[in-house]
Structures are given as structure tokens and as C-alpha cells.
Write a structure and sequence with these properties.
two-stranded antiparallel ribbon; 5 strands; 53% helix; 308 residues; 3-stranded antiparallel β-sheet; hpI Integrase, Chain A; 2 domains; 13 helices; single chain; mainly alpha; DNA polymerase, domain 1
């Protein structure tokens, strides 16, 4: 039986983190054949075995999982040894990898996508196609809320009706009990504006009215028979839903991921004249490095007129 202490310890760890760490430990023990507790030499050999096969970020995650296991079990952390650090430095030198970033969804692409979804909604209403109407209104609301609030996919999937106040023509107030940037789980309230076009508030209200959702997760799965599920969408589903909508609108969906909404908003805000402090506050970035990773630099290479 799980004790109350264990239950609260589990609740204090992100579900995604728990899954990732468990997978990392299984990879070390089962796939590679390592033993725990491990020595720094074993950790170094493990890293060398998968250098060039796994990405640097994956190797860093594996190290973090191994460090957490040793710490939680009361053993010295072998991942902090000079040997392991030197091996990681060598892997970065011999297997350099360019960081992949999602293509930002620009405003024109967002307009094109929503215009296509509106056409699908109109056709579904005319044909009394309840399944298509559900899917398109859900996807429209998810994409518009995700863009204008610069949410991550996991934040979209954790939205709950009981924590949202919506008023057409005014805006949305969204409360998330915890998020990636909220390390102390104090909860954060977000505002989403009502807009004259591409309005996330109207899209949200239309979706809830169509789906008849009064409580529970906002964005849910819909099965092949058009039945609405009770559980929230999985964060990985957001990328596929976005890509399908973009491809329906005639865009290259494969170039985008769920992070394209967050990057797209950041680029739109930057190009619209938002200063860095305002953008960081709205999106929830704690340091300027995070902001710079999301906003594309647009240097002006125009030359002055000859003879000037």
C-alpha cells in the first residue's frame, strides 16, 4: 500500500518527469546492462556506448535520471565526477548537433489555417456532420488559445473548465495549478484577450457549447464514431492536430510542431513592437536567453544608396 508520504512525494514530481526518468533508468539497466548503484566509470562507459546514437539532450536527461536515483536512494552521485563531465565534453566536441527548433506559425499561416477550419465548420453544419463539427471546433479553439496565450502543449491539455472564466467580447481568465515555469506549484492565472478576428474567446465558447462540456478537461479526444472522451488530450496529440489542420489549409504541416504556436506568438509580438520585458512577462520566461531562443533575429542588410 502506498503511504501518504509516498503519495505526496509522487504528486510533487511532474508526471512527464517521472515517466522520462523511469524510462532512462530502464535503459541503463535493461538495454545497456548496467547495475545500480553505479560507479562513475560505469556512467562514463554508458555515455560512450551511446554517443552519436542518442542526442545530447537525451544523454543529459539520462544523466539527470541517474543522478536523481542515486540521490533519492542515499548514494553518492557518480554523474558529478570529473570523468563523467570530461566524457560529456568530448561527446559534444566529436558529435556536435545543431539544436532543432520548430518552425514558428506566422500570423498569415494562422489565418489560413483558421479560415480552412471555418470552412469545414460551415460544411459540417450544412451536412449535420456532428463528428466533423466537434473536431474542427475543438481544433480551432486549441490552436487560437495556444497561439494567443503562447502555451505549451502540456499546458493546453491541462486546462480545466472549473478554472476558466470566459466572457465573449471581454476575454478569458485561465488558472493553471502548476506549469513548467511554476516550480513551486503555486498556480498561475493567465489572461487571454477577445479579438475582432482570430478570436480565442469566441472559439473557446463555441467549442464548449458544441461539446456540451460543463466540467473537466477542456480539450479531449474524439473517437472515430464522434464520441467525446472524458480524459484530456495527450500533449503529443497537439502536434498531430496542428499538422492536420495546417495540411488541410494547404501548408506544409510536417515543418511545424506544437511549439510552433509558442514561437509564432513570440515572433508576432516581437515584430509588433513588444519590448523584451513585456514579452517575457506575458509568456512566462524567467531569463532573456529563453526569449532569444524563441524569437527569430531579423537583421537589416539593406545597403545605403551609392555615394551616400
Amino acid at each position: 500500500m502506498v503511504s501518504e508520504v509516498d503519495r505526496y512525494i509522487a504528486a510533487g514530481t511532474r508526471e512527464n518527469t517521472r515517466r522520462s526518468y523511469q524510462s532512462a533508468i530502464e535503459h541503463f539497466e535493461v538495454t545497456w546492462g548496467g547495475f545500480l548503484p553505479a560507479t562513475s566509470d560505469a556512467i562514463a562507459r554508458y555515455l560512450a556506448a551511446f554517443a552519436g546514437k542518442l542526442s545530447l539532450n537525451t544523454l543529459r536527461l539520462r544523466l539527470a535520471a541517474l543522478a536523481q536515483w542515486h540521490s533519492s536512494q542515499g548514494f553518492p552521485d557518480p554523474t558529478k565526477s570529473p570523468q563523467v563531465k570530461q566524457v560529456m565534453k568530448g561527446i559534444r566536441t566529436l558529435h556536435p548537433q545543431q539544436e532543432k527548433q520548430a518552425e514558428p506559425l506566422q500570423l498569415l499561416g494562422l489565418e489560413r489555417c483558421v479560415r480552412w477550419l471555418d470552412g469545414q465548420i460551415k460544411d459540417a453544419l450544412a451536412a449535420t456532420d456532428a463528428k466533423r463539427l466537434l473536431r474542427c471546433r475543438r481544433d480551432k479553439a486549441l490552436i487560437l488559445v495556444g497561439f494567443w496565450r503562447a502555451f505549451r502543449s502540456e499546458e493546453l491539455c491541462r486546462l480545466d473548465v472549473q478554472f476558466i472564466q470566459a466572457r465573449r467580447g471581454e476575454g478569458l481568465q485561465l488558472f493553471l495549478p502548476w506549469s513548467k515555469g511554476d516550480r513551486n506549484n503555486r498556480g498561475t492565472t493567465y489572461s487571454v484577450p477577445a479579438l475582432e478576428r482570430l478570436c480565442p474567446v469566441d472559439a473557446y465558447c463555441d467549442w464548449l457549447e458544441t461539446a456540451g462540456i460543463a466540467h473537466g478537461p477542456v480539450f479531449r479526444g474524439i473517437d472515430r464514431w464522434g464520441r467525446l472522451g472524458d480524459r484530456a488530450l495527450h500533449p503529443y496529440s497537439v502536434m498531430h492536430l496542428l499538422r492536420e489542420a495546417l495540411m488541410g489549409a494547404g501548408l506544409d504541416g510536417e515543418a511545424y510542431s506544437s511549439h510552433s504556436l509558442r514561437r509564432g506568438f513570440a515572433n508576432w509580438a516581437s515584430q509588433s513592437g513588444w519590448d523584451q520585458k513585456s514579452l517575457m512577462s506575458y509568456v512566462g520566461w524567467k531569463d532573456s536567453k529563453s526569449a532569444l531562443r524563441y524569437v527569430d533575429a531579423r537583421a537589416d542588410f539593406r545597403l545605403p544608396p551609392a555615394g551616400s
